[in-house]
Design goal:
Order of helices and strands: EEEHEEEEEHEE
Helix content: 10-25%
Strand content: 35-45%
Bound molecules: 6-O-methyl guanosine-5'-monophosphate
């Protein structure tokens, strides 16, 4: 019943340091998801591919330039009372140039891949992050209350 809803496209990318088993997260300093840790990303613009949007947002928000992207999953978020669903394309990258820098939007910080700060992340993240660790691709759908915290329904599966 949600398939005919309008969707807005977003990207979310997690830079990995596989040798050290670390992932770079950003503390969001403003806008949607403020005061939460997340990967880097944002809205896909009309003129660009989803992958290009992911690389652009990574660079704008962290200073890193991805040399490759691994597609990991698609997340759909439905917020109570909001007629537009979010369709978020999730990537990881193990190859990038540059050094992470703090920007107006994000304060970057490395975390152990098995020690994610889930208490300071979106409520859906612990439900699909394990599939990233296992190298699995996934599709997830989450229905949030308008408190932006409570998930009333979810469908998450590897694909
Ligand atoms: P900007 O407002 O920065 O794009 N995003 C979510 N990420 C996770 N892990 N869980 C959610 O649960 C999210 N909702 C949105 C997508 C917003 C950024 O935040 C991500 C984008 O990378 C509801 O342009």
């Amino acid at each position: 019943e949600h398939l005919q809803m309008a969707h807005r496209l977003y990207t979310l990318i997690f830079p990995l340091d596989r040798q050290a088993n670390r992932v770079l997260l950003g503390m969001k300093k403003r806008g949607f998801g403020k005061n939460k840790y997340n990967g880097f990303g944002g809205k896909v613009e009309a003129h660009e591919t989803i992958a290009a949007g992911a690389m652009r947002e990574l660079h704008e928000e962290s200073g890193l330039s991805a040399r490759s992207l691994d597609k990991h999953g698609i997340l759909f978020f439905y917020f109570e009372g909001d007629s537009v669903a979010m369709e978020v394309h999730v990537y990881v990258t193990g190859e990038y140039a540059g050094r992470a820098v703090e920007t107006d939007e994000m304060r970057p910080e490395w975390f152990d891949m098995d020690g994610m700060p889930f208490e300071k992340m979106w409520a859906d993240d612990p439900e699909w992050w394990p599939m990233v660790l296992e190298g699995k691709r996934f599709v997830g759908r989450f229905w949030f209350k308008n408190d932006m915290v409570t998930i009333t329904r979810r469908e998450v599966a590897p694909v």
